[in-house]
TrEMBL record:
Pfam families the record matches: Glyco_transf_20 (PF00982)
An individual GO BP term: trehalose biosynthetic process
SUPFAM superfamilies: UDP-Glycosyltransferase/glycogen phosphorylase (SSF53756)
Name the UniProt record assigns to this protein: Trehalose-6-phosphate synthase
CDD domains: GT20_TPS (cd03788)
Record InterPro entries: Glyco_trans_20 (IPR001830)
Gene Ontology molecular function: any one: alpha,alpha-trehalose-phosphate synthase (UDP-forming) activity
Amino acid sequence: TEAAASFLDGRSPVVISNRQPYSHEYEDEEVVVNRPAGGLTAALDPVMQTVEGTWVAWGSGEADRVVADDDVVPVPPDDPSYDLRRVWLDEDQVDGYYYGYSNQALWPLSHSDTTRATYSQSDWECYRQVNELFAEAAVEESDGETPVLWFQDYHFGLAPRMARDRLDDAFIMQFWHLPWPGWDVFRACPQADELLDGLLANDMLGFHTEAYCQHFLDTVAALTDLDVDRESRSVRHGDRRTYVRPFGIGIDAASQAEAAATEEAEEFWETFTSGHGIDEDQRVAVGVDRLDYTKGLVERLEALEHFWETRPEWRGELTYVQKGAESRSRIPAYRKIQERVEAKVADVNARFGTTDWQPIVYTTEMLSEEELAGLYRGADLCLVTSLRDGMNLVSKEFAAAQLDEDGVLVLSELAGSSGELGEDALLVHPSDTPGVADAIESALTMPDDERAERMRALREQVLDADVFDWIARQFWTAERIEGARNQQESTL
Ligand code: G6P
């Protein structure tokens, strides 16, 4: 909040994200308020409460329209301190903008999955139209001479330009939560030029890692005539610049640790393990993922299969718990990954399961924050094997919840978090089946003191660079960039 106050200097910012911090749903025919569990919304919410800005988001809750007779609702519902402005989308718009261009073009493209990306012209038109709606709403909600607009993520590749056209002096910033691919991958996108133009309307553009920043600058250098200033990591266009900076996102680590310390967490772990016939001297590995093809779920299950196949002594001794969260299911590639995961789980369980041991426990049940923390805390190891991942917050949640400091993190080197956590996690290549199996064995046989030492270092990192620190780092940098902008210099 100190950084926010210093940068904002009395201005009320407008945050724009696809997902909203509060939604209204029906529950037993009653309308209830939901706080969608998402790291970003949970972290920005307290900041917004202190700076009294406006949050613009898609009104996606089933009952959102019923509750709000206006586009704007004051939130938090029980003690309002800022405004939530809903953008309403009809079904075609949701299909084209969200399920279409955002998640079937930009999502796979950003994860360098060029063969999965499809570029439908009508999706693109929809994406542009919805970006217009959000840009308009953001402009309407902004006030003052130099308002601050902060766009979140790949749903808004065009909106910054649209907002800039209407508000020349605004300070516009954006954070791209996905990886940025190499320039030779990005050029596979037929709309590359317009997207770059949209993003370059930002004064500051943030990515999780330095590598993604470099990829973005490479892309601009390769695909446009603009002047890329490597030294100041900025792109010059006319008398303006876009500064490109890394800000690795964190989690609300303190509240994760708190959740892990609750009775509810402990009770859940006990009921869950005993309910699945896992007794106390057995070891447990855990995986927690949105059911997305970027997470390397099938590869992970293959590595576990290889582990039990080549190390029969661990059959009956190590159980793997996979918590999956259904995601974007209207998209065929997502339905397919769900089916493949279910089939593989059934396969491995049929192959190695016995009357008193089930190798893989698979659940898509919704868990509360405390229950999830209980699962992380109780587990001996956590497997994160993304094929590519902007950051990966599960790796951080696991560490934060490991209050007893006796678990091991097995982490894909292709997850953004491997840069920060790689020294103390066991790094793996997600598609290297024997390599992942070896890492599982190393984790299980690691001496106690080494385990504790590594987990302590992981926890320290995660507690230190948390999501509040992520916000502060951006506001401090934004303040310096705005200062430089006002003096028309590039001293950064
Ligand atoms: C990623 C994106 C977020 C998104 C989340 C969940 O982390 O960066 O913007 O909210 O996935 O996906 P969903 O499509 O359900 O919002």
